[in-house]
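Deliverable D5.2: sample structural annotation.
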Amino acid sequence: MMEQADDIRTQYSSDRNLNARIALHARFSTNTYGWQRWVFNHLTLPDTARVLELGCGPGALWTGNQESLPTGWEVVLTDFSPGMASTARQNLSDVTGRFALVVADAQTVPARTDAFDGIIANHMLYHIPDRERALVEMRRVLTPGGRIFATTIGEFHMKEMWDLVAPFVPDIHTRTRKVSQGFTLENGGEQLKSVFTDVVRYDYEDALEVTEMRPIIDYITSSNTLMGCSLAPNEWATVRRKITAHIEVKGSFHIRKASGIFVARG
């Protein structure tokens, strides 16, 4: 568990790796509505509310929805990575709103009991070593009747991309599941029900139709510290040729996606 925590800390020491993955989704997703917009529209909170985001990353949820941000929201953003928090602070410098940024661990939230009307955990709960402790902490700082919004991925998310690596890393799908299996669309609801009420799951229908080889390679290499998929030069060359040939024949490289959000009450 400590080794996994170290890998996550290295992976998210800055926003470089995350941005490589965001770029692939931003350019080639078939759902043009947009993930961040879709998530934001599920934040069913009053016009005046205190909101906490755990694991805010570079702050994309807020920079992408600044025109819809209620003026009465006070938002506290946390991330365990000082580099991510610094990037979020820079990215939000021109966004109108009341933001506070804190470097913090979701397992020990630095806030008083009943402090927030809404809590957001956007694709991060599967990274938490002691998730039960984090969920109890979320419940503690949530007002009675407040809502949590937890996004995650499903079991077969991005499977076709990792199939490219499988000939050289036979257990790659086991490795990918190890990263996210702690909290998925398939098992996240039951975990939330142990702490929260009225748990509802919403799925985001989407896929990737990638028309260039390089963004797929960038995505795979950005996940190296998590997946351990550091291939030999000749193996990378084989993967590149396979992607290129597929795009030449089919017009694009199809990758399925499985993402969604759980909404629950405290």
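Annotation notes: Confidence is low (pLDDT under 50) at residues 1-15. The radius of gyration is 19 Å.
The annotation will be released with the project's public dataset once the embargo ends.
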